[in-house]
Write a structure and sequence with these properties.
With about 130 residues, the chain is an all-alpha fold. The protein has eight helices and no strands. The longest helix is centred in the middle third of the chain and has 18 residues, at about 65-80. The radius of gyration is 14 Å and the shape is globular. It starts with 6 loop residues before the first helix and ends with a helix.
Length: about 130
């Protein structure tokens, strides 16, 4: 029997797979270029200099918690970019969000609340 998968679920799965398979330097470089060094540093709870080092040096690796936060941010970024412009996606990451108690998605990722940010991103994407 053929399994029917909702297109929205398939898109989420694709974003997850891309974030999981992406090289660390690609994750950091993409987020750094698109969202900005200070936003990436905020989400990973590190200094902007550390983010620059990660983006430039393929041998520099974060602690597992920072890596998870940025891979989650990358998955969310990748998913939102399929339906919105880079400007809109960046604004979404730094703007207060009614689905997150008016906190910003970047701050919530920094606080370790990625599941709530994934849900807020899905709502934003699905409601247009």
């Amino acid at each position: 029997m053929e399994q029917i998968v909702d297109p929205l679920i398939r898109r989420r799965q694709a974003a997850h797979a891309e974030a999981t398979r992406a090289a660390w330097t690609d994750v950091v470089s993409t987020l750094n270029t698109q969202l900005g060094n200070s936003i990436v540093a905020l989400m990973a709870n590190v200094t902007p200099e550390t983010v620059s080092r990660w983006a430039k040096n393929g041998k520099a690796h974060p602690n597992p918690i920072s890596e998870r936060k940025l891979r989650d941010a990358f998955a969310i970024y990748t998913d939102l970019m399929k339906v919105d412009s880079p400007h809109t996606v960046r604004a979404w990451f730094i703007g207060s969000n009614p689905y997150l108690g008016e906190e910003t998605p970047a701050e919530m990722i920094a606080a370790g609340e990625s599941p709530a940010v994934f849900a807020a991103a899905r709502t934003f994407r699905d409601l247009g």
